[in-house]
Amino acid sequence: MVVRIGVPKETAPGERRVALVPEVVKRLVKSGVEIAIENGAGVSSGYPDASYSDAGAQVTSERGIIFRSNILLKVQAPTLEEIAQIPPGGVLVALMNMSRNLDRIRALRDGQVTVFALDLLPRITRAQSMDVLSSQATVAGYRAALIGAELCPKFFPMMMTAAGTIRPAKVLILGAGVAGLVAIATARRLGAVVEAYDVRRAAGEQVRSLGAKFLELQINAEGQGGYARELTDEEKRQEQAMLGQAIGNADVVITTANIPGRRAPLLVRTATVDGMRPGSVIVDLAAETGGNCELTQPGERIQYHDVTIAGPLNLPSSLPFHASEMFAKNLESFLGLLLSKDRSLVADYTDEILAASVLVAQGEVRHGPTRDAIGGTK
User: Fold this and answer.
1) β-bridge partners, 35
2) Which of 20, 15, 9 is nearest to 335 (CA)?
3) Contact by Cβ (8 Å): 330, 129
4) In the CATH scheme, what is the code of domain 4-130+320-374?
5) Which one is catalytic: 31, 128, 129, 245?
6) Is 366 a residue of the active site?
């Protein structure tokens, strides 16, 4: 039996990405699987229907064909209406944002759908080629630096002009994960003087390698999976004291700190914003999980006194062509584990990557924290 993969058009408000791009479709079809993609699914990303047809996919307006596929690939979690179209035994692969989609996970569990949550991929070497969180954070970090440059009333680079020398802008990056490091690199390419801070000491070497200054604090908050652990009250006090001075000297502050499954840590409080220079800018990449700045309003740009605070949502969708390309290549790697050599679905999920990322299987929520939040298996 030939496995069919279905790719519907994303329906979340403002979502412009698509789960597969023609380049990846062509390779998958050549490997022996069928691809059914909803017409218009890639248009917002810059991939017309004809490019999918040329790659060997079936382009259709019949959503039933898409959702009855053996494997359904999505960027974001399906709606309840879409879940109702997935037959028992179907397999869904997507970013599930578990804490915000408990009702959908219940529906998938009750519908006997097997779900692989890309949010749960382990941070191990073997999984790097599948890591959609890192690939999409690359886009977010790049866009954050551009937003900061757009909103800042100063040039980023030093300029030699007929009116004299213009000093470069000072950019501070809080959090040196993937998004933070890309923001550093982008701000540096634009000519800004860049400083960065992260509670993980190991991040210092990466920050310096990009030409930025690393702010030192005698705290090591390295947590599991490459993420930072939550700081103690005393560590938070030390952090706030140091950051207050650095933030006050910055023209643009880009915050990227997140703790998986928790509210984003508060790094920039109102009192700190009060001490910023007129015209300063904050770009808060943690807006979707509560914000690193106390004043952030998710999805809005606000003016607090003379400081601009931006809380953009779903930044990867603002660069959909390359964001979709990277997402699709991540999925292609993941499908290499989910499909056997004869292109049939694997019978079990003993591989450590599949075992870690399976969210729902056989009518049971496998991810402990999500199961506890829902309240049991049924």
Assistant:
1) 5
2) 20
3) yes
4) 3.40.50.720
5) 128
6) no
- In CATH terms, the superfamily for domain 140-313 is NAD(P)-binding Rossmann-like Domain (3.40.50.720)
Catalytic, out of 63, 68, 123, 269 = 123
Measured distance CA(19)–CA(10) in Å, rounded: 9
* Mean pLDDT across 335-362: 94
Task: Based on the residue annotation, tell me whether 134 is a catalytic residue of this protein.
Answer: yes
Per-domain residue ranges of the chain: 4-130+320-374, 140-313
pLDDT at 234: 77
Cα–Cα–Cα angle for 28, 31, 94, rounded to 5 degrees? 35
Calpha distance 18→66 (Å, rounded): 14
Question: Both ends of the chain: CA-CA distance in Å?
Answer: 32
Assess whether 110 carries a catalytic annotation. no
> What is the distance between the alpha carbons of residues 154 and 310, in angstroms, rounded to a whole number?
17
pLDDT in tens, 72-112: 999 999 999 999 999 999 999 999 999 889 999 999 999 99
User: Which of 131, 198, 251, 284 does the annotation list as catalytic?
Assistant: 131
H or E segment and range at residue 71: strand 71-76
What's the one-letter identity of residue 283?
Answer: V
Nearest to 148 by CA among 179, 171, 168: 171
Interval 272-312: pLDDT, tens = 999 999 999 999 999 999 999 999 999 999 999 999 999 99
Q: What is the pLDDT of residue 50?
A: 98
Q: Is 227 a catalytic residue?
A: yes
Whole-angstrom distance, CA of residue 27 vs CA of residue 23: 7
* Known catalytic membership, residue 224: no
320's CB contacts (< 8 A; 6+ apart) are 16, 17, 18, 44, 45, 46
Does position 19 have pLDDT exceeding 80, yes or no?
A: yes
The single residue of 106, 227, 297, 333 carrying the catalytic annotation is 227
Choose the catalytic residue: 45, 134, 135, 280: 134
CA dist., res. 305 & res. 17, Å (int): 36
